[in-house]
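Write out the bound-state structure for heme C.
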Amino acid sequence: MKFRALASTCAIVAFAGVAANADPADDTLVINGEIPIVTHTDAAPPYIEGLTEQYSGWHFREADTRAMEQDDFDNPGMLGVEAAAANWNEVDGTAGKACASCHEAPESMAGVRTQMPKYSEAKGTMMTLEMYINECRTERMGAEAWGWDDAAMVNMTALISSVSRGLPMNVAVDGPAAPYWEQGKEMYYTRYGQLELSCANCHEDNYGNYIRADHLSQGQINGFPVYRLKDAKLSSIHNRFKGCVRDTRAETFKPGSPEFIALEVYVASRGNGLSVESPSIRN
Ligand code: HEC
Ligand code: HEC
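---
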């Protein structure tokens, strides 16, 4: 019985290393000729046991997709950034304020994305960038919270991330972050769904290999939100998590759920040292 179950899983999911193409592309990313992006390191953080090197998902995409990230004029994700930059100055809510009323220019957010998710002393919980934005909207502007995957929200996270491009991801894993990190780590290695696959089975054990037509990356989130060519729009971290869990034919968690927040803490830390690259471009 056991053997049969395993055999059928293998029949559905075949990992293939296609000799010539399987390696991550040997390439370097400089945006607009002036922002060098660390997309590869040979020193993963010591608390990430399963990785010796780190690769941005950029290395696993085709040359033409990689090239689109080299110049903001070719990057369709920048349209979302521009929409958010306009929104930044727009008054919304009962307090008659815009983001700009308190935060000056978006560039004042440089470095913020590198630390997300970050523990909030005031709230006594780990908060993602989306949660910080909604805290300002609801508590400081008297405006409505944006949904996790609303265009306005995803665009705003892209704007705030874009001003950190080139800076290294530096998410805390200790202190009050530790229990969230532990929970996220456990999820990362849990096998989900009918296919009984964990995040690690695909993104740690098999990065560089192909699954169906997809060249598997390490599943890093330094490039999020990402512009997905197949959707022709920007996509949030939790939306990607949801798709990956669903691909294992499991019930998935909701964007913004405590489970996905903990998973984000852990996955973000796997990329500590890689540059913020958002908005990046993926399939
Ligand atoms: C009434 C003033 C006010 C308005 C308006 C406002 N914020 Fe804030 N924002 C704050 C304050 C105060 C903090 C907390 C700063 C701190 O504790 O370091 C904050 C924190 C943040 C943070 C977290 C920064 C960090 O370093 O952790 C983000 C992100 C943010 N705001 C985004 C926005 C966005 C986007 C808007 C518009 C939709 C907005 N804010 C509107 C006052 C405001
Ligand atoms: C069955 C294999 C499989 C499993 C299991 C899986 N993924 Fe993925 N994931 C993919 C594929 C295929 C892609 C698209 C190609 C790529 O970037 O790897 C992807 C992409 C991603 C990306 C986008 C990376 C980028 O740079 O754009 C993230 C993040 C991610 N996965 C996280 C996860 C997490 C977290 C889990 C566990 C909850 C998970 N994945 C489970 C197959 C999987």
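---
The radius of gyration is 19 Å.
Residues 97, 99, 101-103, 112, 118, 129, 132-133, 136-137, 140-141, 156, 160 surround heme C (ligand 1) (CB under 6 Å).
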